[in-house]
Amino acid sequence: MAGILEGKVVAVTGAGRGIGREIALLCAREGASVVINDPGVGGGGEGGEPGPAEQTASDIVAAGGKAVANLASVADPAAAATIVEDAVKHFGRIDAVVNNAGILRDSIWHKMSHEDWRAVIDVHLNGAFNVSKAATPYFREQQSGSFVHFTSTSGLIGNIGQANYSAAKAGIIGLSQSIALDMARAGVRSNCIAPFAWSRMTASIPAETPEAKERVARLQTMSADKIAPLVAFLASDLSKDVSNQIFAVRKNEIVLFSKPRPIRSMTKLEGWTPQSIADELIPSFRPSFARADEVSAHVFPYDPI
Fold it and tell me: I need a labelling partner for 150 at 20 to 30 A (CA). Which of 19, 86, 225, 278 fits?
C-alpha cells in the first residue's frame, strides 16, 4: 500500500536530530523524498558538523527511501535557498517545507544580550521566512504546496527567560497566518505546530528541585516521534482543506488553538480618562483577565516548551 506522501518531496530543516529527524524518517516511510537540512550546530548555534544530517539521510536510504543531506544555515537567505534548490535538483520538485530548525539562548530578560536576541530571531523567524520564500515560486507555479511551521507555547503564552525565543515563535504564527491568506488562491496551505517533546532543546531545562525533576520526568515521556504523524498529514494531500491553523502535540494528544478574539468590551460615551479606566473599566475587565489566565493553565498545566 502506497504511503500518503508517495511521489512528494519534503524539505525538513533541523532534521539531523530530535523532532526534525523523526519527521524526516516518517515522511520517508510514507513515500516522500526528503531533503535533510541540518548544519549540525550546537544547541546555541555554535560550531557545526555534517554528521547529523548525513546520518539521517543515510538511515533513510538504508531503509529503501530517498534522501539527501543539506548543511545550509536557514539564517542565511542564500544558503536557505539551497535547501529548496537541492529538492528540485535531486528529486524534481518541492511539495512541502517543514520549518523546524531552532536554537536556544535563554536568559532572564534584563540580562539578555542583543547578540542572543538576534541569533534566535535569525534562526527561528528569519529562517522560516527564508526557506518559505525560496519555496514559494515553485508552489505558485504548481498551484499546490504545504508549509508546516514550528511555533511554541512559549510564543503563545510566554515563558520565563525566553523573550527572544517567545518573540520568534509568536512571529512565526503571524508569518504562517499571513502566508495562508496570501497563498490560498494558489492552493497553498500554511499551518503551525507547537510541540511538546523531549529533545536536545528541552534537555537544557534545569532539574535541581523535586518539582523540577518531576516536570522533567513528565517531559521525558513525550517522545519526539509523537510529533511526526501530524506533520506528515499536513504535508500530504489529506490536509488539502486544512490551512491557517495552530496545533499542539503533547504525547498522544493533539490540540487545536483558538485565534485571539475580543472577550470583553466597554464603551463610555463621553470618552475615557485615566482615572475612569482605573475606576470603571479595569474592575469590569478583571474577571476576564483571570479567565484568560485560567484557560492557558487548564489547557497546558506543564511548563511551556
Answer: 86
CB neighbourhood size of 53 (10 A) = 28
CA distances to 46, 186, 289 from 141, rounded to whole Å, are: 37, 8, 46
Residue with cell 534522501: 67
- What b/e sequence results for 22-45 when a residue is b if at least 16 CB atoms lie within 10 Å of its CB, and e otherwise? bbbbbbbbbbbbbbbbbbbbeeeb
Which element (helix H / strand E) includes 277? none
**How far is 235 from 200, CA to CA, in rounded Å?**
24
**35 has which bridge partners?**
11, 68
**pLDDT band per the 50, 70, 90 thresholds, residue 253:** very high
CA distance 208 to 101: 28
pLDDT at 158 over 70: yes
Using the Cα atoms of residue 158, residue 159, residue 162 and residue 165 in order, give the sign of their dihedral: negative
Which whole-number Å values give the CA distances from 143 to 45, 94, 238, 242, 252, in the listed order?
Answer: 35, 12, 16, 16, 33
Selected catalytic residue, list 165, 196, 198, 247? 165
pLDDT at 135 over 50: yes
Mean pLDDT of 240-244: 98
C-alpha cell recorded at residue 132? 518559505
Mean pLDDT calculated for residue range 5-22? 97
User: Is 165 an annotated catalytic residue?
Assistant: yes
Confidence check: pLDDT of 291 > 80: no
Please give the pLDDT value at position 3. 97
- Judge whether residue 34 has pLDDT over 80: yes
